[in-house]
Amino acid sequence: MNTKMHDEAESWAAAAATGGLAENELKAWNEHVASCPACKKTNDEETAMANFIKGKLGPEAPDPGFEQRILHKLRQADAFKGNRWYEYVLFHPGLAGAMACVVAAACIVLAVHNTNRPVVSANPPGFDALPTVVQGAIRSRTGLKTVSKIENGQENGEAYFTVSTKEASGGESEFTLAGDGTLLSSDTTLDAVPPAVRDAIDKQMENGSLAGISEDFDAAETTYRAGITAPGGDERDYTFAKDGTLLEAETTMAELPAALQSAIQSKAAGGTLGSVRKTFENGETDYVATVISGDGRQHDYTFTGNGTLSSAQMIPDELPAVIRNAVAAQAGGHKVCGIDKVFDGGDASYDVTVAGADGSQRVLTFSEEGQLLSREVAMSDAPQAVQQPSRGY
Amino acid sequence: MKDDPQPEQAGHFPERETVRRALQGDTSAFEEVVLLYSKRLYAVAHGVLQNPTEAEDVVQETFLKAYSRRWMIRDPEKFPAWLCRIARNRALDLLKKHRPERFPGEDGALEEVPDHGVPHPGESLSLAERSDAIHRLMDVLPENHRIAITLRFMDGMDYSEIGKTMGLSHGALRGLLDRAMKTLRKKIGSATLAEISGGNR
């Protein structure tokens, strides 16, 4: 007799009845059961109990239509439907252009459809007073969503409009339009951001939670700003590039070196300090402080870690006349969309970002005397010899 | 008794590619995943709730949640256990909300669960009554025992599949099912067991 099996008969019988014994174990157990009436009784009871449970639970398995019901409801879900076109484009980059046309056409159809639909609710407050181009942009973007609020604001003389919409799911989201109807930013979800961004947000989040994501559109690049709440409740913004690279991370004055704190405070004197961000570019870490002055103007100041001011954002009418004239002469019909005064040792220069009609941006650099120091050009505009790949010498 | 007598089938995960594509947002692959896992999720939810309608709702919610949060999982092999956890947690939420009297509490103490309907030795019950009693017996098991029993006997899953679904090794699962069967055996009582086993011969 196998005394070990005998002493642990219930466990062996349970394992046999639930299919947990290896082939050699089952053979040994069956041999023991055949020679031990007590263990045979235990084994029979355990087998009977297993059969009884199976007999009861088996018929309660889902009916044949169960899986199709699950699939059907899943396909109806906004989260699942919403990703289809996006994933299609994402995983078939070659079709992105064609898909963009389809989406654009769908938007037009949707806009026309919505225009023709009977008015269910009055226009939201303030809608009728908006510029026509902004009204059109809101109509085409909201689709079936209901606009719940429109707020207008100004940043350094540029008008913008923030539109809140109620989602079908009950949630709220926002998007922001420039005065010419251009989309500046839009709330988005983890489902909709590129996988690299999703992974980067996940990594940054650790044990925290996600407060929201905004997709910010710029002619130069599209970035993703994620509000992440730490376990302690502290919420900070993190900005990522499309490839998931962390571009900026919000920080606090208390975390900065004393010299840097002092430099920021000197710039914020008389105004209000907005956010302070660490920026990561080309392996270097800088600090950007947003300061809102008493008259509502907003400036970004960039510092190195030791508190040295490396650049200051400027508004066109703050430029010295000599620079303003030089910009007017060089920018042609391009729109000025950003000016930074850059400090390098004792020298200063002005980086002026201009945008062409096609949205492409170039940076023109001027000396303090208004002399054009450099002009950024697209590779396609460079001489053929410059476009040739380097030969390594 | 040996704890882990069967070799683990590490790396045996035929649906890996399908799951990988599903995690990347391929909706067709995700629909395949639904077909692969919906029954076992139903068994998990049913194991906790003992209610078919609620169990189906839990499966629905589980796949939606899994789809929207699929970025959380990078290793496809961890996907089944992750799905199971979502279903189990949602089912436990429902159990706590709708039938708090049947919720065993944080420590899973069996004593808190009423013993109604469980036959005792000497009681004479019809087959239907006994069947119903055994079904109600599931309520006295801790939820992970119920899930394992349901996966085994409702869905007919083998140890390897149950282990992957519940994130348990073969040895851990064998120990868990051993304890579950012992609890059921004790609650049913030897007289009833003898009668059942006689009737099933």
Concise summary:
The complex is a heterodimer of chains A (393) and B (201). Chain A has 393 residues and is of the alpha+beta class.
Structure report:
- The complex is a heterodimer of chains A (393) and B (201).
- By secondary structure, chain A is of the alpha+beta class.
- Chain A has five domains: 3-58, no CATH class; 67-118, no CATH class; 122-183; 189-239, no CATH class; 249-380, Roll (Nuclear Transport Factor 2, Chain: A), CATH 3.10.450.
- Chain A is 36% helix and 31% strand.
- In chain A, helix 2 packs parallel to helix 4 (37-57).
- The longest helix of chain A is centred in the first third of the chain and has 21 residues, at 37-57.
- Mean pLDDT of chain A is 80; it is low at 83-104 and 106-121.
- Chain B has one domain (16-199).
- Chain B has helices at residues 16-23, 27-49, 52-68, 79-98, 127-137, 143-153, 159-166, 170-188, 190-199.
- In chain B, helix 1 (16-23) packs across helix 2 (27-49), helix 4 (79-98) packs across helix 7 and helix 6 crosses helix 8 (170-188).
- The longest helix of chain B is centred in the first third of the chain and has 23 residues, at 27-49.
- Chains A and B meet through helix 2, helix 4, helix 5, helix 6 and helix 9 of A and helix 2, helix 3, helix 5, helix 6 and helix 8 of B.
